[in-house]
Design brief:
Blueprint lengths: L2 H13 L3 H14 L2 E8 L3 E8 L2 E9 L3 H12 L11 E8 L5 E10 L4 E9 L14 H11 L4 E6 L6 H12 L6 E5 L10 E4 L8 H8 L6 E4 L5 H12 L3 E6 L6 H8 L4 H7 E13 L4 E5 L4 H11 L3 H10 L4 H8 L3 E5 L18 E12 L2 H8 L4 H10 L5 H10 L5 H7 L6
Parallel strand pairs: 7-11, 7-12, 8-9, 8-10, 10-11
Antiparallel strand pairs: 1-2, 1-6, 2-3, 4-5, 5-6, 12-15, 13-14
Helix pairs in contact: 1-2, 6-7, 7-9, 9-13, 15-16
The structure holds zinc ion.
């Protein structure tokens, strides 16, 4: 059945106040249309359901507030983990479900008492989703080379920094998938285990009974591991344990909450790590964001000559070392025409949302101008020079400046190369990258 039909079925179920069916169709629409979250929210005069697709919320449907309470209660009862009579406190639940299209999903749900009624948000984890191979993630140019090189190292730490929903789980799994061979023992500690992968020993941590990332890391050393993935480094103890594992010959993957690869240095030092330990164990720090990809069907070139964002972007390239820039352009396969269209003529690609032939709403992106997402990656490769700078006590600011001058691809640079190739527009890039000055 087409996704559109499920929307019609959902509307029908709402008219009939059939709450079981409302949930069935809602989850199916969510999964089939690739939504990450479903919001069920009450307002003064009506209620609405929105879904987040490609990082942006879209309204799916509105319904009368008269049966909002039954919708929330039904979910609480079905979850078996929420108290239906408790309406004053936020509550959490994790449930498994199967969609009408026979896909197994996990839901992480939360209710929040608002000034009106409770709002319910469900995060969808689609377990049937395939993890793309590393080469399909958009790790282009020198970034692709850096990651390949680092995956070959027998020990050290590879960190991924991210804000929620930026695809870090996918990147980590793709990396593990790339080195997942019968000769190595890979053990992971996750919360939750989002995808099951053949050949990995995946453990779900349970902090309620004391099975934490830290205790997992401590015990795994007795499991004869080669490669370890620990879901997140949140405290000094886990960080130190990860560093110790790296020092004793293991390759350790993890994630940490920071905004950029360079900022991770400050964060790790503030957590209490010694800079010599950082210099001795860190191999690579990746920062990433997911940008909305330009819809290929309605994409067109537009002149942005006077757009402040364009002028800023141009300046970014003018600050780039000429030789390194030339190499990067070649590595990414950017053509002469693409380069001069952007740099000399001031053209970039943008989705119009209109079908180029009929000039009606674009059937591919439904008029939004974007379809799917593409990763923007920033990689800080811990080269010998950077290790030396850390040992010399140089600041994160100085190290970042040095790395950029020596060709590090940060989020902005990666995004701009992708804009030149017609994958991203400038609005998406500067949603993530602060414009300092023009
Ligand atoms: Zn389109």
């Amino acid at each position: 059945m087409e996704p559109q039909n499920y929307r019609e079925l959902l509307n029908k179920a709402i008219l009939q106040s059939d709450i079981v069916k409302i949930f069935d169709y809602l989850l199916t629409i969510g999964v089939e249309e690739g939504a990450s979250d479903i919001h069920i929210e009450p307002f003064e005069n009506y209620c609405r359901i929105r879904i987040r697709i490609d990082g942006v919320l879209l309204e799916l449907v509105q319904y009368p507030k008269s049966f909002h309470d039954s919708i929330i209660s039904k979910f609480k009862i079905e979850s078996g983990q929420m108290r239906p009579d408790e309406k004053r406190l936020p509550q959490d639940a994790r449930v498994s479900a199967i969609t009408q299209t026979n896909k197994e999903i996990d839901l992480r749900a939360n209710t929040l008492p608002t000034v009106r009624w409770e709002k319910l948000v469900m995060r969808i984890v689609d377990k049937s989703k395939e993890i793309p191979p590393l080469k399909d993630l958009g790790l282009e140019g020198s970034n692709g080379r850096i990651i390949q090189k680092n995956l070959q190292y027998p020990n050290g730490i590879i960190l991924n920094t991210w804000p929620t929903g930026s695809g870090k789980t996918t990147t980590l799994y793709s990396c593990l998938g790339d080195i997942n061979k019968p000769e190595v023992n890979i053990t992971t500690f996750e919360d939750p285990v989002e995808n099951k992968m053949m050949g990995l020993n995946q453990a779900q941590v349970r902090s309620d009974i004391g099975f934490t990332f830290l205790s997992g890391l401590r015990s795994v050393l007795r499991q004869d591991p080669d490669i370890i993935m620990v879901g997140e480094i949140r405290d000094k103890e886990t960080l130190e344990m990860a560093m110790e594992s790296a020092m004793t010959g293991h390759l350790v993957f993890s994630t940490i909450h920071t905004n950029s690869a360079v900022e991770t240095i400050t964060r790790v030092l503030n957590m209490g790590a010694q800079s010599f330990m950082l210099a001795g164990t860190f191999n690579l720090v990746i920062a990433q964001r997911l940008g909305r990809k330009i819809c290929p069907h309605c994409a067109t070139k537009i002149s942005v000559k006077d757009d402040p964002k364009y002028l800023y972007a141009k300046k970014t390239f003018q600050n780039f070392d000429k030789e390194i820039l030339k190499k990067e352009i070649l590595l990414r396969g950017i053509t002469q025409a693409e380069w001069s269209d952007f740099f000399t003529n001031g053209y970039i690609t943008q989705g119009t949302g209109k079908d180029p032939k009929t000039w009606e709403v674009c059937p591919v992106c439904k008029g939004i101008g974007y379809k799917g997402r593409v990763g923007l990656y920033e990689m800080m490769d811990y080269t010998d020079n950077i290790r030396m700078m850390l040992l010399d006590g140089k600041s994160a600011f100085e190290i970042g400046k040095y790395a950029l001058a020596n060709g590090m691809i940060d989020l902005e640079r990666d995004g701009l190369f992708k804009a030149i190739q017609g994958k991203l527009d400038l609005n998406e890039i500067y949603r993530f990258v602060k414009i300092q000055e023009i």
